[in-house]
Amino acid sequence: MTSDLGLPPVLDPQAAREVLLAAPRGYCAGVDRAVITVEKALDLYGAPVYVRKQIVHNKHVVANLESRGAIFVEELDEVPEGATVVFSAHGVSPAVHAQAAERELKTIDATCPLVTKVHHEAKRFASDDYDILLIGHEGHEEVEGTAGEAPEHIQLVQSPDDVANIVVRDPAKVAWLSQTTLSVDETLTTVAAIRKRFPLLLDPPSDDICYATQNRQLAVKEISPEADLVIVVGSRNSSNSVRLVEVALEAGAKASYLVDDHTEIEESWLEGVNNVSVTSGASVPDDLVDGVLNFLAERGYPGARAVHSAEESLIFALPPELRRDIRAAQNKQA
After folding, report:
1. From edge to edge, which strands make up the β-sheet containing 275-280?
2. What is the pLDDT of residues 272-284, one digit of tens each?
3. Catalytic residue among 121, 141, 142, 149
4. pTM of the full predicted structure?
């Protein structure tokens, strides 16, 4: 029997702590395909294999592939004639394909099939002589690749603020497309502003923002409202990762930060923080997320509880030119 001396109960300062882990997170089908493409190309052809631009926007993935013999270049004039070059998941314009042919480069196109779909839409709208409003970020490789499909028909719209300055030939023949990694909500806001100016605006035949981008944004919305802190793992040049930080804040998180890995987490972020939520962009391998969870565990935070908001089972086949060469190598060995 114990006596109550009228003292307040002793509370465990860690008892109320919680870590939520977004699911899905990390690699999407297009990123997985692109990374495996470079790995298989190195195995099949041997180093070096050249890659135009970062294969995906993650510095750790790029560094790992470099350690295996991949050489990343900005433009094709850095690639020796006749060498093997992989095009990144973000896609390239027809002009880049033409330059590769001129230099007699062996090309492997790792463009995400969902980006390729947007390219096809751009060509179709252009063939029907529409003015195409491409919603996206200036300078992003994906935007440059899509715009290159029909440069005389496409103009970039970065936000609703740009809508007033749009000039088209025929208001009845205007269509819109978008970069696949944008914020869903922001894109819809921009589309609404465009439609207000051009009521006959034609939509793409299907949503351009990729399923993985949408799923990761929905997952962040679920784990952010009660969060004192949301940590998003991803590189700063990753559009979809940057968007996750913005979505977390809009969904109610008190604070949200983007980190490449656990070494970038500042101890001061955890002061007074009980509820931490963690997610990662579509080009982030799981081991980087594990590093963040271990960092939190070492500071007294419990094991993460996964919050499932969607299931993903999509897998893309490797580029046909790579599959052909793999089959040829296997037949030769047989």
Report:
1. 256-259, 229-233, 275-280, 18-23, 305-308
2. 999 999 999 999 9
3. 142
4. 0.91
